[in-house]
User: Fold G-protein coupled receptors family 3 profile domain-containing protein from Mucochytrium quahogii.
Amino acid sequence: IVLFVFNVLVASGFFTWTLLNRNHAIVRASQLPFLLMVSIGTMVSSSAIIPLTIDDSDVDPSVYRSHPTPASPLSLDGEDPGANAACMASVWLYCTGFMLTFAPLFGKMWRVSKIFNNRSVKRMIVPSRVLVLIILVLLSIDLTIVLVWQINAPLQYRREILVFDNFGNP
Assistant:
């Protein structure tokens, strides 16, 4: 959780700094919406840490159809729906955050490449809506892959107990 808080504080600081300096020539040249999207993407991908902190150790044993011992409510076979949802939520958050961070950078690099590889003498302008379209296409491809993954083979929480006491308890 500390790493999550640190990442969000740093990203929020850059987000705030960018907003406060939005009239500065460098920030305007860097295109404010895309800078803000990188900060938001960093916060979203950092939030993938939170679902990874969920486990099945403090869940009511009656939730499970089977568990190792009556004294131990730990799920060994992925029966905890909350932990299963947390596993997939971390994938959704990380992939979405990564694309919100990567796609604006990719779009901006594509724009620079188009401008510098322009063979004509005319000034070339690549509108921001083209960059937004690139971002939306990349994000939709990524989210489609994650959706197909979740439908066909969703992640399940599995607990692997490596050490047992003398009585067979984990």
